[in-house]
Write a structure and sequence with these properties.
Blueprint: H1 2-24, H2 41-56, E1 63-64, E2 69-70, H3 82-93, H4 99-127, H5 132-143, H6 146-151, H7 157-176, H8 184-204, H9 209-230
Antiparallel strand pairs: 1-2
Amino acid sequence: MTFLNKYKSYIIDFFIFVAILIFARFSLLQNFYAPFFLSESSEAFMQIHYYIEAIRNNSSLYWDHSINLATQGVPQSPLLSPITILILLITTIFSISDIETQANIFAFFSYFVQVMTGFTMYLLLRHLSLSRFSAIIGGIGYSYCIAVSILGIYHGYYRASAMMLFPLLAMMCIRLFNKEFSKESDTLFYTVSVGLLLGICLISNGDVKPTAAMIPVLVLMSYYFGIKNFGA
């Protein structure tokens, strides 16, 4: 009960983001995966579908035998995305070969990433001491802005994943240069966490553009909070 009382507002606000998604994507009530097959993310789904078929046929994940070409390789391969790995585990464990079921799973994780994109920005804004209402509005604006749409959800969840992780990266950079977390163990934890998250963004999002755009912001943010808290 202590946990629920402590994080009650965060849990409620998470479901507000879910409700906003349902309202914004009203077609969810008609056809769950249809919005993704009206955009370039259909190509992303077919790549995931190929991975699933390659595992079922014990063939290479990096060579598409149907068109005799290499699939998108490393770095920046969607195969390296933790969400892709989770999808492949689910479809393999439960032997899901029906393409419509696979499309529904792909759509579910894409919607999940869009919800989390707004929610992680909400967490960052709450961390920066903004009011609950302001953080919700900021999270909604970030989740549905044109940058997230162009670089993110309509190109497949793995590009949007980089946008989802950016607020967490920013939060960790702020904590890293916060005097309250200046102990050696805390500094090591946040340094390693920033490196791991940034590495995931670089190698698993299928496109370097979202990560390339966020790195200068992180550098400037780190410089600002470093000067502010520790001096020149």
